[in-house]
Amino acid sequence: MTARTGNLILLGIAGGIALAFLGVALFGEAMVRVEWLGTLFLNALRMIIIPLVMASMVVGITGMGDVRKLGRVGALTVSYYAATTALAVAIGMLFVNLLRPGAGIDTGGAAIPERVLGREAVGFQDIILSFVSDNIVRSMADMEVLPVILFSLVLGAVLTTIGERGTPVIAFFEGLNEAIMKMVLLLMYIAPIGVFGLVAGRFARAGDIGELIGGLGLYVATVLIGLAVHAVLVLPLILWMLGRRSPLPYAVNMGPALLTAFSTASSSATLPLTIECAQEKNRISRRAAYFVLPLGATVNMNGTALYEAVAALFIAQAVGIELGAGQQVLVLLTATLAAIGAAGIPEAGLVTMVIVLRAVDLPLEGIGLILTVDWFLDRFRTAVNVWGDAVGAGVIERYLPDGDPG
Questions:
Q1: How far is CA 194 from CA 25, 181, 357, 385, in A?
Q2: For the whole model, what pTM was predicted?
Q3: How many CB atoms lie within 10 A of CB 35?
Q4: Residue 350: which domain range?
Q5: Tens of pLDDT, residues 307-359
Q6: Distant-in-sequence, close-in-space partners of 357: CB < 8 Å, separation ≥ 6
Q7: How many CA atoms does the CB half-sphere of 243 hold within 13 Å?
Q8: Any idea what the CATH number is for the domain that residue 356 is in?
Q9: I need a labelling partner for 298 at 20 to 30 A (CA). Which of 121, 142, 275, 304 fits?
Q10: Phi then psi dihedrals of residue 242, to 5 deg
């Protein structure tokens, strides 16, 4: 993809979002009729996620050569993601303590949302169990990415140990990966239309956003401020200091992926574009792009973890429970660990919220207070998640062992 083509696609996606908001302002709920365009685009992205994850992970692992390097790079990547996620949680907790958005909120006798019922008993053991599937084909069909990543990691590692017999298998995955990336490039040409349909349809169904937010305005502002500080100040500083890359052009080059993340509210669905933008526009090496980014789309949830911590403290403030320093540290640790592991479970964000609330004995009914604005904030935190993945690839690439031919 040439720089000119990439810039045109970025402008097209931005134009699609702007046109969607304009359409909703002019025609209101009638814009729901174009949502099928976004659904078609989203389905096309989802269609290639599983083969992309498998092929990219196998290619990334086999490209490292000595399988012993996998442990070092994997440990470095997960440690980096855990550190930045904990930092994001700390930023969110700082602002929710300063602004206190839950003070004076009327809980209105909120009940436990139906989506939460039956998930009260979910714990960290369930997260660990979600890493390994008893039926990898079913996991692929159900879009359970975490066990697919683990399976692909082990497969790639084993292929490097069986000599010539593994060569044709590795070549197959390399060819498959190249073909899928060509498909991604084709999808980028229709991305502006798909993004237009997604944004127009979702915001048209939401109705009056100002009325919807209502008394939660300060809570929404707190989340957005925390996300902005992490995305605009902290992550660029990390990229500049540790990755030795200029943050502004790096962010502009990731523009199509970030805008798609905002419109789809899905890190996994955005993964094909994240890899394409990172490798083709930011010149991230194949090993870094194909190993770090799929792993990041599953376990690196900076924005989600920040949101969950802010929500937990907001609920505590709303119900009149003051959390001490020790309890807030527990929230930080729980939100960080749950965000890293919960992506393999359906309704992952909801499961994370339940785990965090249970850790400090907060009522699950509090989730009902924030569900009305959850879909809106989800778009922003997903964009931050994807940006965190991209920064991670830029940083980890610099520390890959023995160089990288690309």
A1: 19, 18, 36, 21
A2: 0.82
A3: 18
A4: 3-397
A5: 989 999 999 988 888 888 888 888 888 888 777 655 544 455 666 777 788 77
A6: 312, 315, 363, 364, 366, 367
A7: 24
A8: 1.10.3860.10
A9: 121
A10: -95, -35
